[in-house]
């Protein structure tokens, strides 16, 4: 299955990946090859097969509604790239 | 009206569980920033979410109350998007197999009942909160994130585009809020964000079947904002189409101060959520037995209560709707009747004086200092003739202020009705002597003058004379 230039760019945008122009052709080929390989599955007759919701045949795993202690505040923030007054500080995000 | 407004609503309601949907962090509001977080709700690698059973129980309850089909097999999915209020870069939600499908809710607007179909209800997690360093997002060079709210359980309730006005949209949310409150599954406070509402709005020529291009309106944080937002947006679209323009499919925000909707300029590609099944949570199977058990736990809901108030209590449609909007109010009436009061009389007191007091105190009937049994006792004093209806108002106000029983107040303040014939007769004679003009009027055929004279006697008795006796004795005295 061939994947288009535009699709590569859209996927890159959605995944927040920067693909330099000189790498576009290479990425296009790699992704197309993977899709072609997976495409073989389409030969199977799946008329009476239910879509699989989970790989493990396990259902209904719950926990009771009980509060347990949260992380220590310092520890919670220890992975933050930047911290400000107990907050995770992130670059400005504007949707435009 | 050339154009018809078409509205569908997406309502998010926070469930009042103690812990979050997939971890044991507290859902309590107002903790210091990032103190109600753990590896699961921070999306740290290597941790596993586990569903809070209560969230599922609540979702089934809400689904049944809204006449939905409960799906025997449902599952969670990842909704992928990048925004820092989601530490995982995806929101755990339900996509193609949600917990509930195909329900409805009946609303009443302008005396007409309208059935609003509910497309689906699904369980999901709430996102965190962004605090901007500048006064607005565009003047800030960074944002601060608090993840305390991340993972608080939400139900998203999606309606079909079945509403035709801002008023109907408002009535729908009002009714939905009432039901959620009856079920005791959410605080449903719009101003505080525990119930949030987005509207999909379009317009079309009256008689058209095809839907017009819709816009999505966010940030309507009260019932009146919702109604105004829908009305404004429908008008904006109608004017746009009238001027030969076209509605652009976009997300807009309601600015309550300006009273208008503003474009949020969101790129189309951003809305490609690439849902896929959540591998960290196993699917859910729900048996018919489980559903029937849940149905048994449902309280009597507003519609059923309203019908009962009309049938059993003989209340009007309008009165029973007002009295069933809040469970606390309906329970109060039931308790007053159970304490021996006449239902219609109790309803009148509740709709009149008591409602005023409850509203002024900004509380519900549940917390009223006058308890249902006390209202019933006070009404019994009127029936017995111990106090008049007029004095009862005074007694009720004192009961509200002091919490004391009505008989104690009547005793303390000497409010017992005067039923002593001699005492009333003396007052009647005095009033007749003092008001020759009115007496003349009455005798010359102006029947209305009697009302004035009765009023004077009541005034002279400080409201304590039995009005029926006063009326009768005045008539007797005047016809002598
Ligand atoms: Zn947590």
Give a written overview of the molecule.
Chain A has about 100 residues and is α+β, with helices and mostly antiparallel strands. Chain A has helices at about 5-15, 20-40, 75, and strands at about 60-65, 85, 85-90. Chain A has a domain at about 5-40. Helix content of chain A is about 35%, strand content about 10%. In chain A, strands 2-3 form a two-stranded antiparallel ribbon. In chain A, a hairpin with a 2-residue loop joins strand 2 (about 85) and strand 3. The longest helix of chain A has 19 residues, at about 20-40. Chain A is flat and about 55 Å long. The mean pLDDT of chain A is about 90. A nine-stranded mixed β-sheet of chain B has the order 3-7-8-11-1-12-13-14-15. A three-stranded antiparallel β-sheet of chain B has the order 6-5-16, with no helix packed on it. In chain B, strands 4-17 form a two-stranded antiparallel sheet. The longest helix of chain B has 20 residues, at about 225-240. Chain B is of the alpha+beta class. Chain B has helices spanning about 55-65, 165-185, 225-240, 290-295, 300-310, 315-325, 325-340, 345-360, 370-385, 390-400, 405-410, 420-435, 435-445, 450-460, 465-480; strands at about 5-15, 50, 70, 75, 75-80, 90-95, 100-110, 110-125, 130, 140-145, 155-160, 195-205, 215-220, 250-255, 260-265, 275, 285. Chain B has three domains: about 5-295, no CATH class; about 300-410, no CATH class; about 420-480, Arc Repressor Mutant, subunit A, CATH 1.10.10.410. In chain B, helix 12 packs across helix 15 (about 465-480) and helix 13 (about 435-445) runs antiparallel to helix 14 (about 450-460). The chains are: A alpha+beta (about 100), B alpha+beta (about 475). At the A-B interface, helix 1, strand 1, helix 3 and strand 3 of A face strand 2, helix 1, strand 9, strand 10 and strand 17 of B. Zinc ion binds near residues 25, 40 and 151 of chain B.
């Amino acid at each position: 299955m061939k994947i288009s230039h535009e699709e590569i760019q859209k996927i890159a945008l959605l995944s927040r990946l920067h693909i330099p122009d000189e790498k576009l052709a290479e990425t296009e080929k790699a992704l197309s090859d993977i899709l072609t390989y997976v495409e073989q599955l389409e030969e199977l007759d799946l008329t009476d097969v239910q879509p699989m919701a989970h790989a493990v045949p396990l259902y209904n795993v719950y926990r009771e509604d009980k509060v347990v202690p949260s992380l220590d505040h310092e520890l919670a923030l220890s992975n933050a790239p930047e911290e400000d007054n107990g907050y995770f500080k992130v670059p400005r995000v504007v949707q435009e | 009206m050339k154009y018809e407004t078409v509205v569908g609503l997406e309502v998010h309601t926070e469930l009042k569980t103690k812990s979050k949907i997939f971890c044991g962090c507290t859902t309590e509001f107002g903790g210091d920033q990032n103190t109600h977080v753990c590896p699961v709700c921070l999306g740290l690698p290597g941790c596993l979410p586990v569903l809070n059973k209560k969230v599922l129980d609540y979702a089934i309850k809400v689904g049944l109350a809204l006449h939905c089909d409960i799906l025997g097999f449902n599952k969670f999915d990842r909704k992928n998007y990048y925004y820092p209020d989601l530490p995982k870069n995806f929101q755990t939600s339900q996509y193609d197999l949600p917990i509930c499908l195909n329900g409805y809710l009946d609303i009443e607007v302008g005396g007409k009942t309208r059935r609003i179909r509910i497309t689906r209800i699904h369980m999901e997690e709430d996102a965190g909160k962004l605090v901007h360093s500048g006064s607005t997002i565009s003047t800030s060079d960074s944002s601060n994130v608090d993840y305390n709210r991340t993972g608080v359980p939400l139900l998203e309730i999606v309606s079909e585009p079945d509403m035709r006005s801002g008023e109907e949209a408002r009535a729908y949310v009002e009714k939905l809020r009432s039901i959620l409150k009856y079920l005791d599954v959410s605080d449903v406070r719009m101003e505080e964000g525990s119930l949030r509402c987005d509207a999909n709005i379009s317009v079309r020529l009256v008689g058209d079947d095809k839907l017009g291009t819709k816009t999505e309106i966010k940030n309507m944080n009260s019932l009146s904002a919702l109604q105004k937002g829908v009305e404004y947006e429908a008008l904006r679209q109608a004017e746009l189409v009238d001027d030969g323009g076209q509605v652009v499919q976009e997300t807009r925000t309601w600015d309550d101060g300006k009273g208008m909707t503003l474009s949020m300029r969101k790129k189309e590609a951003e809305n490609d959520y690439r849902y896929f099944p959540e591998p960290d949570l196993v699917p859910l199977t729900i048996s018919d037995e489980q559903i029937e058990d849940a149905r048994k736990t449902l309280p009597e809901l507003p519609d059923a209560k309203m019908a009962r108030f009309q049938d059993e209590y003989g209340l009007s449609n309008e009165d029973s709707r007002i009295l069933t909007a809040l469970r606390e109010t309906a329970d109060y009436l039931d308790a007053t009747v159970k304490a021996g009061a006449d239902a219609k009389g109790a309803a009148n007191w509740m709709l009149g004086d008591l409602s005023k007091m409850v509203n002024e105190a900004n509380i519900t009937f549940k917390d009223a200092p006058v308890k249902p049994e006390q209202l019933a006792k006070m009404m019994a004093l009127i029936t017995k003739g111990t106090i008049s209806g007029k004095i009862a108002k005074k007694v009720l106000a004192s009961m509200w202020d002091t919490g004391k029983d009505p008989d104690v107040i009547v005793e303390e303040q000497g409010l017992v009705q005067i039923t002593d014939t001699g005492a009333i007769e003396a007052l009647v004679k005095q009033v007749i002597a003092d008001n020759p003009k009115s007496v003349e009027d009455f005798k010359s055929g102006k029947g209305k003058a009697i009302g004035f004279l009765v009023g004077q006697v009541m005034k002279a008795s400080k409201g304590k004379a039995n009005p029926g006796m006063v009326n009768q004795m005045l008539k007797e005295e005047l016809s002598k």
